């Protein structure tokens, strides 16, 4: 915890790495979907008719969305293609790591039991000059800020 009155700047969102078991992909353009939510269960009790009680229900996690510029590296595509071809789902654990300007790890979000639920190829245009971007959505069963 910083000393009282000491300025603490937030970290930039541009310096991050993604780690997935057995996949050594070096760089990503974007990583999103770091969220969770709880279902709200409303329960009404006899004699208390003004407002229902609200209780926490099942936790749900959004898919993690990874975007990267297309290269010759096909590890993520192959992981998805194997499932499409009917092979058994290979679930993997991983992390998204936020780093400071010096590259030191500052915040880590660990996800578990992930598998590629959706792949999207690039939007191609003969008039464009942008990098061709692939997208992979990972369904997972839990997210923890470490």
3D architecture notes:
The chain has 146 residues and is mainly β. The protein is 7% helix and 45% strand. The chain has 1 helix and 9 strands. Strands 1, 2, 5, 6, 7, 8 and 9 form a 7-stranded antiparallel sheet that branches. A hairpin with a 5-residue loop joins strand 6 (92-99) and strand 7 (105-120).
Percent of residues in helical segments?
under 10%
Q: Mean pLDDT across all residues, rounded?
A: 92
Tally of DSSP β-strands: 9
Could you describe the largest sheet, including whether it forms a barrel? 7 strands, antiparallel
Radius of gyration: 20 Å
Order of helices and strands: EEEEEHEEEE
Structural class: mainly beta
Poorly predicted runs are none
Q: How much beta, percentage-wise?
A: 35-45%
- How many angstroms does the end-to-end distance come to? 16 Å
The shape is extended
The oligomeric status of these chains comes to: single chain
Number of helices: 1
Can you tag this structure with a few keywords?
two-stranded antiparallel ribbon, 146 residues, mainly beta
Sum this structure up briefly.
The protein is 7% helix and 45% strand. The protein is mostly beta strands and 146 residues long.
Helices and strands, with pairings:
Layout: E1 16-20, E2 30-32, E3 36-43, E4 53-61, E5 64-69, H1 75-84, E6 92-99, E7 105-120, E8 133-139, E9 143-145
Antiparallel strand pairs: 1-6, 2-5, 3-4, 5-8, 6-7, 7-8, 7-9
């Amino acid at each position: 915890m910083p000393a009282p009155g000491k300025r603490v700047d937030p970290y930039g969102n541009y310096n991050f790495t993604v780690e997935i078991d057995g996949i050594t992909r070096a760089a990503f353009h974007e990583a999103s979907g770091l969220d969770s939510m709880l279902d709200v269960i409303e329960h009404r009790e006899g004699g208390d008719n003004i407002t229902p009680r609200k209780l926490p229900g099942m936790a749900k996690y959004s898919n993690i969305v990874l975007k990267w510029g297309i290269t010759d590296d096909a590890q993520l595509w192959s992981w998805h293609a194997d499932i499409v071809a009917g092979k058994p789902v290979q679930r993997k654990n991983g992390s998204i790591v936020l780093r400071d300007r010096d590259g030191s790890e500052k915040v880590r979000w660990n996800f578990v039991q992930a598998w590629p639920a959706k792949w999207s190829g690039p939007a191609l245009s003969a008039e464009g000059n942008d990098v061709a971007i692939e997208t992979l959505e990972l369904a997972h069963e839990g997210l923890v800020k470490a």
